[in-house]
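--- STAGE predict ---
source: upstream dedup step, 1 unique chain passed
mode: sequence only
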Amino acid sequence: MKNIALRTCTLMLLCTVMFSLGCKKGNNPVQPLASNSFLPMQVGNLWYHNSQNYTEIKDSVFINGKLYYKFFSLIGGDAVSTSYLRIDEQGKLIAGDPKYPDLRVIRADFNAKVGDKFFTTGEGDDTDNQVTVTEKSGSQMSFSFDAIYHPNLKGHPYVVSYVKGQGFPGNWTKLRINGVTLK
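--- STAGE serialize ---
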């Protein structure tokens, strides 16, 4: 009887220790609700036009201790793109790469105001872009990218937009955000 009580106490103590270590703050970052985010991120999110053109969040990985989501895109049926993205504590959309863990590129700043400017890398080289917030409403935000240090691309900006609660704008035939199929 004494042996059973000792085993039960040991098992309960072990479970308590494991539970308290598993619930440690900082290990499980809280993601904003999809309806509050300009780019909802959860494995399984899907922006699908057809079998030749879609983007899906395939996985999540830690890069330098930070959680990133792996976005896989098929474009035109034969071009692929893989991006690792996260939204940091200041509302900035950050791109990283597990092969280059010190790489940090700011793709958007969702807390910025119209007219605010920032640089993607701050390196001042021909891959650095000056980004200007061109639109911000309750439902959409747009950023203009200009490669001001590149001799041929300077002055030829392009715009990237995000729709609140949806992420990428588009006429999607399938749209799945945080486990909910919207289309």
